[in-house]
């Protein structure tokens, strides 16, 4: 009964005519509701929907432009029986730089500017990357340069009066050739013979997979190989030389019943042969399983292909001329064809010894050099003006000259990669205001910038040039920049536009907004009614 009495009293009050006080109270309630909604609801909504954005050092990042020239110093030490004076060293340095600058091709619009610089010292160079000894010998019948693998060369001239001019020509040619190589300016003669294959992008580690692939062991021989010993004898020295800059993780596998390649070799009187236009289609990647034990690192695949006995010997012909039994697959790896001895019969078991694999491992080493970007003619090629002999590094697979040139190439590219990635990140963050930028992203960007500054500082520390430190800083800058750009917390916000927010919050705000709008409409209508009544009363008084 008490509840019923209260309901009757409530309805009785609602049926009573509204007084000025009751109307004023309703207005106060409506105004307070509006203020409460605006003062509490909107800040709460803003604080719960806004994303955290750490401030990136945008001004420091955008200051890097392609037009800002990166100096790349190369230090040469002149060792002569009669030591050169400091004036002679300055004369040679000035002449070298003048020739290099005059021979430099024009930079394209978006090309990053680099400037190789030769610094000349007197004496013997320290055993450090970027420092080279040129031993001057007079009394020779011809002017020549004999390049050794260990960052040194012997420059022979007829008379001492020729020494400075020959040194200027030699050093300027070394510096200019490498600068053009880093800028990927390939001479037309090199393009004509097909040396423009794409070099792999730098990675701190490459997964090298050596595969013995037997096309048809059923009707042929069962083939195996002593690859562990062969790797230790032939490939491991190259792996050790490259280890300070990149790691080659080597694994091997044997694939039986691989099946034929996608192309069919042409038949000849004494076997079969492949032509140059068939080589790009030779690798049957869908059927041949080249799985790697390291799925995160770039893969380098090297296949020792054993043809079916009916197809042996298989050769490679180019314009009717037999070439080597191996070929390079750009950005992938290489293939070497292994023909078994003529006495091999179906069902025989053949084990390829390290001596049998020596030729093929030599092909694989050459292909690794090409894929990672080692220059085959470093530091200098012969010309009409200069006779050059470059002694190959037969023990390690890469000379000190070649290793340094590769390191400088990777240094320049890693620096460019780091800058381009950081600038892309800044543009992306500015264009997407809802993208989350966490503190760890800012930390990676700051560390990448610090590594870039450290790279430039290390390159300017003459004569104590530390190329290993400069290279490590550039590689770290590129790695940190890419890690920040592809961070999962940032990528996820690329697929969360504002429309999603509206769809999520509309069911919460719409039910609360409609009564509020109705109250505001009622207040406005009451104000218009009061104003109309007041104007009528005022007009009646004047009458």
In words, what does this structure look like?
The chain is of the alpha/beta class. The chain is 46% helix and 19% strand. The strands form 4 sheets. The chain has a 6-stranded mixed β-sheet with strand order 2-1-3-5-4-17. Strands 8-6-11-15-14 form a 5-stranded mixed β-sheet, with helices on one face. Strands 9-10-12-13 form a 4-stranded mixed β-sheet, with no helix packed on it. Helix 4 links the parallel strand 1 and strand 2 (114-122). Helix 4 (86-103) crosses helix 5, helix 7 (227-242) runs parallel beside helix 8 (354-372) and helix 9 packs antiparallel against helix 10 (439-459). Mean pLDDT is 83; it is low at 187-196.
Report the mean per-residue pLDDT as an integer.
83
Largest sheet properties: 6 strands, mixed
Outline: flat
List the helices and strands in order: HHHEHEEEEHHEEHEEEEEEEEEHEHHHHH
What does the radius of gyration come to? 38 Å
Question: In short, what is this structure?
Answer:
The chain has helices spanning 2-15, 20-49, 58-62, 86-103, 163-182, 188-192, 227-242, 354-372, 400-431, 439-459, 467-485, 488-491, 498-542, and strands at 70-79, 114-122, 131-138, 144-148, 152-157, 205-214, 222-225, 247-255, 266-268, 271-275, 299-306, 314-318, 321-322, 326-329, 333-337, 349-352, 387-390. With 543 residues, it is of the alpha/beta class.
Q: Which tags fit this structure?
A:
alpha/beta
Q: Layout of SSEs?
A:
Layout: H1 2-15, H2 20-49, H3 58-62, E1 70-79, H4 86-103, E2 114-122, E3 131-138, E4 144-148, E5 152-157, H5 163-182, H6 188-192, E6 205-214, E7 222-225, H7 227-242, E8 247-255, E9 266-268, E10 271-275, E11 299-306, E12 314-318, E13 321-322, E14 326-329, E15 333-337, E16 349-352, H8 354-372, E17 387-390, H9 400-431, H10 439-459, H11 467-485, H12 488-491, H13 498-542
Parallel strand pairs: 1-2, 1-3, 3-5, 4-17, 6-8, 6-11, 7-16, 10-12, 11-15
Antiparallel strand pairs: 4-5, 9-10, 12-13, 14-15
